[in-house]
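Entry 14. Two folds queued back to back today. First construct below, sequence then structure tokens.
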Amino acid sequence: MTYVLLLFGLLLIGVPIAVGLIIVGLAYVIFGIGMDPLIAAQRVANGIDNFPLLAIPFFMLAAELMNAAGITDRIFRLAKAMVGAIPGGLAHVNVLASMLFAGMSGSAVADAAGLGRIEIKAMRDDGYDREFAAAVTAASSTIGPIIPPSISAVIYGLTAGVSIGGLFAAGFVPGVMMGAAMMVLIAIYASRRNYGRGQPFRWRELGIAFLHSLLAIMTPVIIVGGILGGIFTPTEAGAFAVLYAFLLGKFVYGTIAWGDIPDLIFETALSAGNILFIIAATALIGWILTAEQVPQHMAVWVVEWSPSPWVFLLLLNGLLLVLGCFMAAHPVIIMLTPILVPVAGAMGIDPIHLGVIMILNLMIGLITPPVGLCLYVVAEIVDLPVLRVVRALVPFLLPLVAVLLLITLWADLVMWLPRMFGFA
């Protein structure tokens, strides 16, 4: 308990989470069990000595390249041609574009920062108020890590020892459900606020937009299809996504210059470095928890006190929704997964099902204060105080939580595709 309080104390005074984890782990190794501190260094190093971890910087760099290549503009134009003619059209376009881009970037923040600027400008030009445009953009960005590929799924899969391909397959249905649920809410808003239609639907415009974006929308088909078909691993898929996005931006669209590459790599290195540092630090804590048999003790306690798996999952949802308000998603996944997977296994819950539930919970955290990254990205784009964006976002939490409850209580919504492809 002393070391838990030490960790919370360090976080409260602003110590980065990775540094705090290493300090606590080192303190335990030296003062708790009296071992050589080099043991801690070895565990930290071993934490990132894992080839599949390369998928994380690869997918991050692919997202940076896609934004630089102008793929976001083409995706937006295609979505506009498909659903822009219905009432509240550009808000529906916003959601559909996020669903399409989700199949390429795997990152909610990349969606909010890249597509967000295009979507919000188009909605503002068409008469939508800033708060509503910001709320739709922030809420739809949460679909990014659910529909594959997904950086969060890669991290969970590696931490839990679960098939990443299975997690990718499991994200399809929940991601589509999230988009559909938000579109229902948007339709209600459109009727009440009399949000107009966009341009009339034209098959010719749809055809042109489809042709212009064809190579871009082939990205998720190739990546996810290759993984599910066993053609390449998630790490190889990430490397291919980088190559494909670069070739499109440089030689097909001509929107990436050689001088842009160092900046894109630098930004990716910063983001990936933060995540990998946390993974390395958490490996030390994971080793300590395993040595002390914490997961096993928790599994026994939960099985004894939870009357059913549903109660456990509902309580877990509450815990994760609260944690998502105060912590970034990836550290929570890395820290809690080694504890939760054995507990869930003892209750008969599939680790793939558990992973999708965890990721969706923590994506909701990206749009809730005080730490919601997507919330702050969108607030900066629309130049509004964060609290005004939060007020506009509250109704959009309802469809997201509804989908979360559905996939929590009805596991087949998550598991039927992994079973179909032989991952479960």
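Second construct, same run, same settings:
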Amino acid sequence: MGQKIERDHQRFRKIVRGKVKSNLSKYISRGEMIGKKGKDFISIPLPSIEIPQFKYGQKNSGGVGAGEGQPGQPLGPGQGQPGPGAGDQPGGHILEVELTMEEMASILGEELALPRIEPRGKKNIITTRDKYTGIRQTGPESLRHFKRTFKRALKRQISSGTYDPSDPVVIPIRADKQYRSWKEVKQPQSVAVIIYMMDVSGSMTDEQKEIVRIEAFWIDTWIKAHYQGVETVYIIHDAAAQEVDEHTFYHTRESGGTKISSAYTLCDKIISARYPPSEWNIYAFHFSDGDNWGDDIPHCLKILQEKILPAVNLFGYGQVESPYGSGEFYDYIHEMIGSRTNIVCSRIPDRDAILGSIKEFLGTGR
């Protein structure tokens, strides 16, 4: 019975994976998948199929086509009149299916054909796990090795002449019991840091910030699937830049001009002070509408070429289209792609472009 349930469960999960994979673009663009993360799980609403059916009202309930009426008689409860009250019939429901973050990263990688990331930094965090490598005579019953215990008891009964082939009952005694033993194994794991920079000047609307939030979530999901230790840094900027927490990053309302170099300067300072490139895998992503103070562009490119690009595994520039931004900064970044292999730029005009943008950012395998 247990095996049948397990087979049904596995078959159901395959159906869910197929459903999610075929509708991945829709879920990502609508942000449905990140509505409920929790600690390790996210919840994906899967609308059920409703079969059309006729519903009949109660007999002699009146109304159009149900008997005689008077001129001006209302067809239903009017304003201020009591309604029918609380219903007693069940309503429709949305099925929610939980998938782990590892499963979601796997689905994303399969759908976008993303290559696995190859860590570069040498710094490791040391984690330990229990590895069962041997057998011992004592231990908890939950670790008892049934097969070895049974064979040991069988040998004892045969050698002592107490085993009856016509009544093959084998009863282990305390001396027969064998238990799995374990030892702690140290495992080095590569570490990484993701630095997000976002323009919060007056030309960036709430819709643009929501696009950034959705895309950053999926970038996090994919990178964290390849590293055991991941730190995240958030930088916002208009004419000046500052490091903030995640909530402030996505909910700040700012105005004023834009100097992208302020964000790049702060990014370089944080890397130099906390994340040496020889030890860390560094990923930097900048999201903006492409509007920048004209005299600031040469300064931006200099910091990017001389400081940030030599230090990071990958630098991604995402231009979130805005009705108020000029969008010209994209062209300056795009010109650098031919001379650098660790820089990617992407245009994100709307939510429907998020999936393609993620593929552009993560398709390098860096």
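Quick look at the second one. The chain has three domains: 2-46+95-112, 125-185, 190-362. Residues 125-185 form one domain.
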